[in-house]
Amino acid sequence: xxxxxxxxxxxxxxxxxxxxxxxxxxxxxxxxxxxxxxxxxxxxxxxxxxxxxxxxxxxxxxxxxxxxxxxxxxxxxxxxxxxxxxxxxxxxxxxxxxxxxxxxxxxxxxxxxxxxxxxxxxxxxxxxx
Length: 129
Known about the structure:
Elements: E1 5-11, E2 14-19, E3 22-27, E4 32-33, H1 39-49, E5 55-60, E6 66-67, H2 72-78, E7 82-88, H3 92-101, E8 109-112, H4 115-126
Parallel strand pairs: 3-5, 4-6, 5-7, 7-8
Antiparallel strand pairs: 1-2, 2-3
């Protein structure tokens, strides 16, 4: 899997780094992330991965924001090539919230303490040994 950055996008909701098989998302402080606020991100994902290239979404939670976890199901229907969800947390409270979010997805989901570990997991998920 290529770790070469394809393109970086600054959107109203945050900063997004698109790679060949994964997205690293850094959502802005105090954003309410839901299906409506994420529309531009979803359009970019559809453009880069074209419904066929497998990819993992990595949420690098450097800021505090809210997520509507029940909307994960909508994404799974729209993006069959979305293979997994990694959440990188930096404190105990964020980690507990992320563990709860895992209950609302049918895709492989894992919580990490470092971005490097999340990327490594994404690689193994997309290209298992």
